[in-house]
Automatic annotation (TrEMBL):
Residues 19-254 form the ABC transporter domain. Keywords: ATP-binding, Cell membrane, Ion transport, Iron, Iron transport, Membrane, Nucleotide-binding, Transport. One of its GO terms (molecular function) is ATP hydrolysis activity. SUPFAM superfamilies: P-loop containing nucleoside triphosphate hydrolases. Its main location: membrane. This is Iron-enterobactin transporter ATP-binding protein. SMART domains: AAA. InterPro entries: AAA+_ATPase, ABC_transporter-like_ATP-bd, ABC_transporter-like_CS, P-loop_NTPase, Siderophore_ABC-ATPase. It comes from the Bacteria. Coiled coil: none annotated. GO terms for cellular component: plasma membrane. Pfam families: ABC_tran. GO terms for biological process: iron ion transport.
Amino acid sequence: MSAERTTEIESGAQGIPRLAAEGVSVGYGGRAVIEDLDVTIPPGVITTIIGPNGCGKSTLLRTLTRLLKPAKGAVVLDGEDIAGLRTRDVAKKLGLLPQAPVAPEGLTVADLVAKGRHPHQSWLRQWSSDDAGVVERALAMTGVSELADRPVDSLSGGQRQRVWISMTLAQGTDLLLLDEPTTYLDLAHAIDVLDLVDDLHESGRTVVMVLHDLNLATRYSDNLIVMRAGSILAQGHPRDVITAELLDEAFGLRAMVIDDPVGDRPLIVPIGRTHVQLDQVPQRNAKVRLG
């Protein structure tokens, strides 16, 4: 990462949050998943939510997009309680890519991406050349223009994810929320999708995503939210958050944390029972930043 971009991130993280949860509690069937949770999403950066299975990562993301209604507390989008906004207005402000989405059989790439323009349609405003231009630009930005006439279900996993991201871009929002966008992808395709996410961030978008791969999360994120048992354990830049102690506390994982040789980020090296003892390897000196 360049010094210029680091400065931009550090100053942008202090700006007015695009999205925030204030004292939210959410659950399913009477069972609480997250309780009294406060979190802010800084503008202009990539925020990634990590944590063990069942800790509430996807629940938090779905709550931030109003797919789940909190039993207590509020989600604030651009200074307004999201519960009081019309669904169409929410869709104009943020785009959501759910986990493992499925397109109707035979639906073409162009037709799927065009669905991203639905929030902008009404009885008085039908499909226009402006909408077609937005779709064309979304296809081009994600590198899938040549796939426009192909059925979505005929594409590879990586191509499909690019198409779904293209649909969220067609909504015309600069706030993107992605729930495990690399699910079921091999490493090469996962890197390809995350490179695209980074390109979108560089073009001025705020991104929030859930990832399972910790090293991909540290490499592609400017802001990490570490969850455990429905609570925020730590939040901040990967350099400040990721330590061996945090990994043990959050995941029950023994690991070395060293400097990533290809970037100014921490690199996590898991330690199994048959591997070297932790006291025999150097540890990266960092502190956990809470809040």
